[in-house]
Specification:
The chain is of the alpha/beta class. The protein has a domain of 170 residues: D-Maltodextrin-Binding Protein, domain 2 (3-Layer(aba) Sandwich). Helix content is 48%, strand content 12%. The strands form two sheets. A six-stranded mixed beta sheet has the order 7-6-8-5-9-11, covered by helices on one side. A five-stranded mixed beta sheet has the order 2-1-3-10-4, with helices on both faces. Helix 3 packs antiparallel against helix 11 and helix 7 packs across helix 12. The radius of gyration is 27 Å and the shape is globular.
């Protein structure tokens, strides 16, 4: 058997024989080892372990709370276990609408919710996810956050409100349904008058404009209120979240498509002092883990929302109804009034609206002109099968 040294030592050849060849080999090995060390994570493991106590503003069974938990797992894995997120359920430390204050004071290291929850502090918070959107979808809206000046505007808002928090956005949400109605579907704008309706943020102003009696409450309180008749109708977010909350047990009319919240995304908050206490590589890991979770959530929603919408229709016998065009048009007119009213005496609100308009005016036409309409393709491949499977019409 050859000795181990013989297996790795260079033989006589181009590098020279004997000691000269060995010296050249050892020099190359040292250079390679240095390059390997340079590629290793930048001293992440050398830092002390950190546990960040955070609270979600979403019920623990909901798919959004699961996104926050999954984000924490990504951060923990990417830091080799050095940074752990302890994601507490809603209400563990404070109510859902008080999370940002708890993060600011340090009662929580971080929080997870949506910007519309801070609406009572400054109406402009709601524009970051619950506003007119100007034809943008949620991905386009996140594009405004990252490349259209939205992130900088939000940071300016936090400074103006003297809130010591760092905010990161992720998870483009699908258009939110008009909601669940116990007294039957909404066929015209007038049908909304007098209805006791749950929503949040600027959406509350929109439904008031349409004559509804608005009630603002957290997600965990909706189903009991709807069941007891405290409210007549409510919206939450998407087929999966709505099914997990149990809407199908208290209503069988599910109206989809609406302009009250056509775009929205999730928000991760971190106490500013805690954030500044993290080294730069760890901050980068958190930042890019948030981006990774954004893509992951998009793919999960494709799977979960499609399956759960089908289950609502077939298993739970829910009637899914598209919102009539006159109701959608009334919503857009209501937005015009709200934007005009809220802009008066609120220059920051106006600044955000103008920034969003500028971004939408350039970005929306890109999709309209470049992206093909997929409805003809879907009909081509699937509608003939559906028609063939349908029973013959009665004469």
């Amino acid at each position: 058997m050859k000795k181990t040294t013989e297996a790795i030592a260079p033989k006589n050849g181009p590098d020279g024989a004997g000691a000269t060849g060995r010296r050249a080999f050892l020099k190359r090995a040292a250079v390679a080892a240095g390059a390997t060390a340079a590629l290793a994570p930048a001293r992440v493991s050398a830092q002390p372990a950190i546990t960040l106590k955070m609270q979600s503003g979403i019920p623990p069974t909901d798919i959004f709370h699961q996104q926050f938990v999954q984000l924490g797992k990504k951060i923990e894995e990417m830091t080799a276990g050095r940074v752990r997120i302890d994601m507490l359920p809603v209400g563990a430390v404070t109510g859902p609408f008080q999370i940002i204050e708890a993060v600011h004071t340090g009662a929580l290291d971080g929080g997870a919710a949506v910007p519309a929850y801070w609406f009572s502090k400054q109406v402009a918070f709601s524009l970051f996810g619950t506003g007119p959107s100007f034809g943008l979808d949620a991905e386009g809206f996140l594009g405004w956050i990252h490349y259209g000046g939205g992130q900088q505007l939000y940071e300016e808002l936090l400074r103006d409100m003297k809130l010591d928090v760092v905010a990161m956005f992720f998870g483009p949400m699908p258009t939110q349904p008009l909601g669940w109605f116990k007294k039957g579907e909404i066929k015209r704008p007038e049908d909304l008058k007098g209805i006791k309706y749950r929503t949040v943020g600027l959406s509350a102003e929109l439904f008031r404009q349409l004559g509804a009696s608005v009630v603002i409450m957290g997600g965990a309180d909706i189903i009991p209120a709807l069941d007891r008749g405290v409210i007549d109708a409510a919206e939450f977010n998407n087929p999966t979240s709505d099914k997990m909350l149990g809407f199908q047990d208290v209503s069988k009319v599910y109206m989809v498509q609406s302009y009250h919240q056509p775009v929205e995304f999730l928000e991760l908050l971190v106490n500013k002092k805690k954030w500044e206490g993290l080294d730069k590589p760890t901050q980068a890991i958190v930042k890019y883990a948030v981006m990774a979770q954004s893509a992951d959530m998009t793919w999960q929603f494709m799977d979960r929302n499609s399956s759960d919408l089908l289950e609502l229709k077939t298993k739970h016998k829910v009637r899914v109804v598209k919102t009539p065009k006159p109701v959608l048009e009334a919503q857009l007119k209501a937005w015009d009034k709200i934007v005009k009213e809220k802009s008066e005496g609120n220059p920051f609100f106006t600044k955000v609206i103008e920034s969003q308009r500028k971004w939408a005016e350039r970005v929306v036409p890109l999709r309209q002109e470049i992206m093909v309409d997929n409805e003809p393709a879907y009909n081509h491949y699937f509608k003939p099968k559906a028609a063939a499977a349908a029973p013959p019409a009665k004469k």
